Amino acid sequence: xxxxxxxxxxxxxxxxxxxxxxxxxxxxxxxxxxxxxxxxxxxxxxxxxxxxxxxxxxxxxxxxxxxxxxxxxxxxxxxxxxxxxxxxxxxxxxxxxxxxxxxxxxxxxxxxxxxxxxxxxxxxxxxxxxxxxxxxxxxxxxxxxxxxxxxxxxxxxxxxxxxxxxxxxxxxxxxxxxxxxxxxxxxxxxxxxxxxxxxxxxxxxxxxxx
Length: 210
What we know:
Elements: E1 2-5, E2 11-15, E3 18-22, E4 38-40, H1 51-60, E5 65-68, H2 70-76, E6 84-86, E7 92-95, E8 98-103, E9 121-124, E10 128-130, E11 144-148, H3 156-166, E12 170-174, H4 184-194, E13 198-200, E14 207-209
Parallel strand pairs: 3-4, 4-5, 5-6, 10-11, 11-12, 12-13
Antiparallel strand pairs: 1-2, 1-14, 2-3, 7-8, 8-9, 9-10
Helix pairs in contact: 3-4
């Protein structure tokens, strides 16, 4: 499987000539979903779900399909009949040849005054986990964790503890558009030194084989 980091929380997975894109949001590239055979969206916040980017991807490939919580699918289902699927915790499905499990139900708490919304984390091919905006721990081992390193709802101590609890073989940063270049070396040292997992950071557009 080939993993390509895109802007912010967006990632691209490729296997056997097919492409799965997760969270093409407003901080991602304009063409983040273009070329996808399937798209997964974790939740409705605009840094994870940008309707124009999503429509561009689904419009580019007439066979491309979308899986997401209802708050997302309700917005685009009418435009792409038969290609949009609503998912929730415990669901399993196959998207573009990838086996996907849904883990988690709610977005992390931003502030007690802000209502929580649905958030679906996706475990792909039993090995790669993208939690969206939550520190969900799947009830099975994770080989590669997409690690949300910087958000209004987390702090570095929580991210270190999350890595320790999930115990992946390796973790790559996502949700990093708000993290300044000045802070990145400090985050790298703390996550690499305290969490006990192989930690990596890719620039948008960089790829690795998983």
